[in-house]
Write a structure and sequence with these properties.
12 strands; three-stranded antiparallel beta sheet
């Protein structure tokens, strides 16, 4: 050991000098890309501000938003894991990014290290005609006929879970986050691939999805034993499971003896119809990847919205009273019937409540893109190639609207129409070619939950200091995971 040290010791000052030079060059590269934009003037070598991002995402993004708001451009810079990032506060610039998703501009990634997690064949990574063709092929998955079938599934699963919540702990408050997540996972599984997942497959699916969720919020260290590696491997298994479901559905639809009962059936039925004109080039595994994309989009965002709906309704009893009154005009729990599509369409105020929940607490607060080229975002600033760009859907939701910090569902009613007047600022479902294809499904699910939860349950928050502060998991949720006391509104609660 002494011999080794004596051999290297003459070179040690040179090694230190080289390392210092590399660190200096990295810092200069960051400053060159950031130029005059606000943001931290100094960043740690390689990791940048990743540690503070992982330790407290809410504080990190609030600071980044404050940087962006401090300038008329509405953008700010930072540095994470060897990557320069750009935070976009301005709604106009966010629209510009959404409108320029193409090979020679911005690439939608959904997560800063999404391709490593999701694989290469997801819908969000597609461009141009390939992307248009695929969206056209999946359009039948969200027709009124399909949504009607999904609504029946959603209603029955929500009802089962509400009854389970009431039975589980009647004298104590419940933390709703995991309960809502489990309800949504069962709903997504049943709506998307219904009869093709048996109970054993569902249990494995739930375990793997939890691995994925945990890995989303960890540093992208792709080594054995790290959460990111576990997440990546879990996604591979989930996609294989969904691919098997697609293959089974294709066989069932090809037999032509049964009508579609879930989303993958509608998809495979359409593929078989189109096969006579042009063979469908997606493999079952690629379809599994797209299904996983749907699942991810529906699962965590929906959980976030359900939690915020309960939190916001608890502090707005007049809104609860109006929702209950409207629901009672269109649906009676005693009837044993589900809330159908016709009833949902008549619940205008309940829909306004759902849209206001999504506006004021946009679940996916940012939509990461990567600059594929040097892109002139403004007259004075060009986004360097390779930059991870974060258009802030959350910040856009507070721009333009009347008293934007106020929870006010009436803004979406016919007499005010703020959803139309300030449409460019309502970006919770994205914009442009990659706008969420399942947004009607998502709104229906939130409406059903709000209608049934308020009609069937009396609820009260178990409030604690800071319970309504925002936490990232990775979508946003109340800090206390929305703890509530629950009781049935009447003794004839279904399934109790």
């Amino acid at each position: 050991m002494e011999v080794t040290w004596s051999w290297i010791s003459p070179y040690f000052p040179h090694i230190i000098s080289i390392v210092a030079l590399l660190l200096l060059l990295e810092q200069l590269s960051y400053l060159r890309k950031k130029r005059f934009l606000p943001g931290p003037p100094l960043v740690l070598p390689f990791v940048g501000n990743a540690i503070s991002l992982v330790a407290d995402p809410t504080k990190f993004w609030n600071r980044q938003s404050a940087y962006a708001k401090s300038t008329s451009l509405g953008i700010s810079g930072n540095y994470i894991i060897g990557r320069y990032i750009l935070y976009v506060y301005s709604s106009d610039l966010s629209h510009k990014i959404f409108a320029n998703v193409r090979p020679d501009a911005f690439h939608l990634v959904g997560h800063p290290f999404g391709k490593k997690l999701f694989g290469e064949h997801n819908l969000i990574y597609m461009f141009g005609q390939d992307h248009k063709d695929l969206r056209r092929q999946i359009a039948p998955n969200f027709t009124p006929k399909a949504l009607l079938i999904y609504t029946d599934i959603q209603h029955r699963i929500i009802l089962q879970h509400l009854a389970r919540w009431l039975r589980s702990s009647p004298a104590e408050s419940l933390s709703l986050r995991i309960l809502c997540r489990d309800m949504n996972l069962e709903t997504s599984q049943t709506v998307f691939v219904g009869p093709y997942l048996d109970e054993a497959a569902r249990r494995r699916f739930n375990v793997d999805y939890n691995f994925f969720n945990v890995g989303l919020m960890k540093l992208p260290i792709d080594l054995p034993g790290f959460a990111f590696r576990n997440a990546r491997l879990a996604v591979g298994r989930l996609i294989e499971t969904l691919a098997d479901c697609a293959a089974a559905s294709e066989r069932r639809m090809a037999a032509g003896e049964e009508e579609p009962s879930c989303l993958i059936d509608f998809w495979m039925q359409e593929n078989l119809r189109l096969a006579a004109e042009k063979p469908f080039e997606c493999s079952h595994r690629e379809i599994g990847g797209h299904l996983f994309d749907f699942l991810f989009a529906a699962q965590d965002a929906s959980t976030s919205s359900l939690l915020w709906a309960v939190a916001l309704l608890d502090s707005h009893p007049r809104v609860v009273a109006r929702v209950r009154d409207e629901v009672s005009q269109h649906w009676s729990p005693e009837s044993g019937a589900v809330i159908g599509g016709d009833q949902l369409r008549e619940m205008k105020y309940t829909e306004a409540v759902a849209r206001e929940v999504v506006r004021i607490r946009a679940p996916a607060t940012m939509v990461p893109h990567i600059a594929g080229v040097d892109f002139p975002l403004t007259e004075n600033y060009t986004v360097p190639k390779g930059t991870i760009v974060f258009p802030s859907v959350f910040d856009s939701s507070f721009q333009g609207f009347t008293e934007p910090e106020k929870f006010d569902p009436d803004r979406f009613m016919e007499d005010r129409q703020e959803d139309r007047v300030y449409k460019k600022n309502f970006l919770a479902f994205g914009s442009g070619a990659h706008q969420c294809v399942g947004q009607r499904y998502a709104i229906n699910h939130l409406m059903l939950f709000i209608a049934m939860f308020t009609a069937l349950i009396d609820f009260k928050r178990d409030r604690s200091d800071g319970c309504d502060e925002i936490t990232y998991v990775p979508t946003i949720v109340p800090k206390d995971d929305c703890r509530v006391f629950l009781s049935p509104r009447y003794s004839g609660f279904p399934a109790l």
